[in-house]
Design goal:
CATH class of the largest domain: Mainly Alpha
Radius of gyration: 18 Å
Low-confidence stretches: none
Distance between the termini: 56 Å
Order of helices and strands: HHHHHHH
Structural class: mainly alpha
CATH topology of the largest domain: Endonuclease Iii, domain 2
Number of helices: 7
Number of strands: 0
Shape: elongated
CATH architecture of the largest domain: Orthogonal Bundle
Strand content: under 5%
CATH superfamily of the largest domain: Helix-hairpin-Helix base-excision DNA repair enzymes (C-terminal)
Number of domains: 2
Helix content: 40-55%
Largest sheet: none
Length: 146
């Protein structure tokens, strides 16, 4: 919170949009101290009150830092869940709600991370590797005839 903005910018300069993100980090830290007594909140509702924190980040914090159930929907989870026919929604918040209703709560974080990893490494956006996909026989979007 007390770090000069320039120092934060220097520390994160390798990240895209680092100036904007540095401002958000500083604002977030100030709000954490002022509104939450320096403690990181444990709910999506509270976390999303922090500058620069959306539902995806909030769920990552809840699942990763606190080990609580969290359905994390990033672009990979969104794409893979659409291709697998688990949702036809395009809005991440709606997909989060839909997937949360289909997957047992205790599996939300693991499920999200598995889909994320699958989307990064196999079911890629431009050139999905259907021939390598262990889900091809279940996937309506698979281009390989099984």
């Amino acid at each position: 919170m007390n770090a000069p903005l320039e120092e934060i910018e220097r520390d994160i300069s390798s990240v895209n949009f680092y100036r904007r993100k540095a401002k958000l980090i500083k604002s977030c830290c100030q709000k954490l101290v002022e509104d939450f007594g320096g403690e990181v909140p444990r709910t999506v509702e509270e976390l999303t009150q922090l500058p620069g924190v959306g539902r995806k980040t909030a769920n990552m914090v809840i699942g990763g830092a606190f080990g609580l159930p969290a359905m994390i929907v990033d672009r990979h989870v969104l794409r893979v869940s659409q291709r697998l026919g688990l949702t036809d929604k395009k809005d991440a918040d709606k997909v989060e709600k839909e997937l949360s209703e289909q997957v047992p709560k205790e599996d939300w974080r693991r499920f999200s991370l598995l889909l994320m990893n699958h989307g990064k490494n196999v079911c890629t956006a431009r050139n999905p590797k259907c021939e390598e996909c262990p889900l091809c026989d279940l996937c309506p979007s698979c281009t390989v005839k099984v």
